[in-house]
Amino acid sequence: MATIEDVAKLAGLSRTTVSRVINNQPYVTEEKKIKINEAMKELGYVPNSSARRLRSQRTETIAVLLPRVTNPFFGQLIESLEQKASDYGYQVIVCQTHDKKYKELDYLQLLKTKQVDGVIMASLTNEWMDIEPFLDSGPIVLCNEYMETQDVTMIHIDHKQAAYDAALHLIEQGCRRIAYASGGRETYISKQRKIGFCDALREHNMWLSKELEINEVLDVGDGQTTFQYLKVHQPEVDGIFTGSDEVAAGIVYAASKEGWRIPEDLAVVGFDNQMLSLLMVPAITTIEQPVEQIASKTIQVLVDQIKNKLSAPTQRFVYPYELIKRKSTDCNTVKKTAR
Amino acid sequence: MATIEDVAKLAGLSRTTVSRVINNQPYVTEEKKIKINEAMKELGYVPNSSARRLRSQRTETIAVLLPRVTNPFFGQLIESLEQKASDYGYQVIVCQTHDKKYKELDYLQLLKTKQVDGVIMASLTNEWMDIEPFLDSGPIVLCNEYMETQDVTMIHIDHKQAAYDAALHLIEQGCRRIAYASGGRETYISKQRKIGFCDALREHNMWLSKELEINEVLDVGDGQTTFQYLKVHQPEVDGIFTGSDEVAAGIVYAASKEGWRIPEDLAVVGFDNQMLSLLMVPAITTIEQPVEQIASKTIQVLVDQIKNKLSAPTQRFVYPYELIKRKSTDCNTVKKTAR
DNA sequence: ATTTGTTATGAAAACGATTTCAAAATGTAG
DNA sequence: CTACATTTTGAAATCGTTTTCATAACAAAT
Question: Where would I find the HTH lacI-type domain in this sequence (chains A, B) (predicted)?
């Protein structure tokens, strides 16, 4: 492989000048610039990335931590994040934590080992006190995750309010025994959602009984299992709030197969407005997050923090969401007619 | 940030010895090893990744090129690839090409700039002659993509035969005017599928007319559009083969909304056996690829090539697939009863 | 006591770029 | 023609490791 030295020799100039051309800095005559470019082309020269990273202490790379790319919401998120990052000249490396604490910490090491200039956490399973020390090694931004602390910038929607709205909607549709299926990880987000959900219930003199709260429900399969459980143990359930469209889809699928009518027998609400929620029969009521805006702001903030090493005041950006009402909760018929 | 030098000083030893401990090489007394480990802990030392990459000329990183992570098939693939890679101690960086030639070439530069030790191409939109030169910079393996050439190792299923089987199935179900919706990119894979599809038709004295061939159909939205087109311009169509479950789902969705019955009015076949194909009403007939096996072999082969720099003979690994028959093609009723 | 063979250690070179600093070349104003 | 500013260039230092090579220390064998 050709090095910068080879190029310099071939062009009859110094490494320094070649470096100037590579990074198109000023103070190189047009004539030599051409000569150098020719030399580079002739040798098929490409600067060695490790060397320039080492010397310049910049990697132009951002790590995005998320649970898993197979979750369409995060697929969509990573898509937008990458798009935006590349606008700013940054590369993205995708880190799947699978909701494992140790993986999350492992990936944060990327910041310490200087493999990345900054980190976006769209996965947050550790306690903040375990994350916080990493801030010494570089900027971190929370995307779609959040917490009480103010030590870090966060970009997200109001999950508590969103869950409240969803629960209220179910209540307004006539549901009286509403189940709650949560993405199991005990994150701040899930706690917020549960609070919002319970608030709505309480305001209508209802409450979430232990038997109607199901945890660790993540994907379509879990949704199916959840329905089986409800059918056997809580057959009087008439509505359910889920943490994702996948789970909701699993429930709708299993319920339909068992002859339950959606929404008459069971009204279902999902989360994230994935394509899946629209395609299901019946289409699933869900909450839409402004993914692109969130992604856009996240990158903007992180890049800013990378560039202005002086730690800017941390901020919190809360974006609006939208409850999208579809057939899965459209109970204008009387609830629970003969099943 | 502490450097190896700082650790050496604190431990009263040399950089070399510290380096030996870091890479747990032999020839360090237990006593000094302990002293050094203490020093590292005290300073919170972590080796700088760029420096070691530069010196050792290894990155322990693999690039995976694929069209987009929002396509669930590739989401699944990346999931498996990452899993396997980490078993071998390799990191994966995900590179979305969005079927753009220039992006594909951009990402291949990672090999030249020594940012990665090897590349997995699950996206292949360029001509081979444009890719081939990159082989000088490091190993490349084709995963789920393939072509005639024998210059590179390939892992895939027989897409031609799979499309043949799917078409045959449609014919056996009584379809007589079968449309073909293809993921537009003019890749070898799509060509193979089309050949297989047409072979089946020809063997039954049918052929694919221009009007029933629709290209550049990639996602659910495209599927919907495709149905609208067929409905208006080719209403006598009674079966359709699609390049992905997403497209198939879009068609089923649009068709149902317009009052067409699936499969009586239109039988639909998807590809990849994504969750979506099972959840749709009706469930969609599709082709399942052994993603895990493909991923596993891909990593194994690539890592082998990275380690044994001597270029092993290139090979081709062809895995079996399975046609999964579901309701969307279950035409035991008479086709085209009054619509 | 000397040789031979391990084990243990460190000084210095190397990896391939960028950055600093000094000096040379050129232009421009007085 | 001189003085000063600006543009152009390169030698050498630097980034933080790993690798090479030389040598020291120790044990076992002659």
Answer: 2-56
Q: Two tokens at A199? A: 């608030």
- Domain A57-156+290-319, what fold? Rossmann fold (3.40.50)
Residue B316 has pLDDT above 60, yes or no: yes
Residue range(s) in chain A whose domain bears CATH number 3.40.50.2300:
57-156+290-319, 159-289+324-329
A326: DSSP letter? -
Which of the pair, B184 or B237, is modelled with greater confidence?
B237
Is the pLDDT confidence value at B77 over 80?
A: yes
Considering only CB atoms, B114 lies closest to which of A50, A137, A278, namely: A50
Return the closest-CA partner of residue A291 out of B74, B98, B70. Answer: B70
Question: What's the confidence (pLDDT) of residue B311?
Answer: 65
Closest Cβ opposite residue A279 in set B79, B92, B220 = B220
pTM over 0.85: yes
Tell me whether residues A72 and B68 touch, CB distance under 8 A: no
Protein-contacted bases of chain D (C-beta within 7 A): 7-20
Identify the band that residue B42 occupies on the pLDDT scale cut at 50, 70 and 90. Answer: very high
**Cα separations in angstroms, B164 against A288, B170, B179:** 40, 10, 14
Q: Cβ B79–A70 below 8 Å, yes or no?
A: yes
CATH 3.40.50.2300 range(s) for chain B read 56-157+290-319, 159-289+324-329
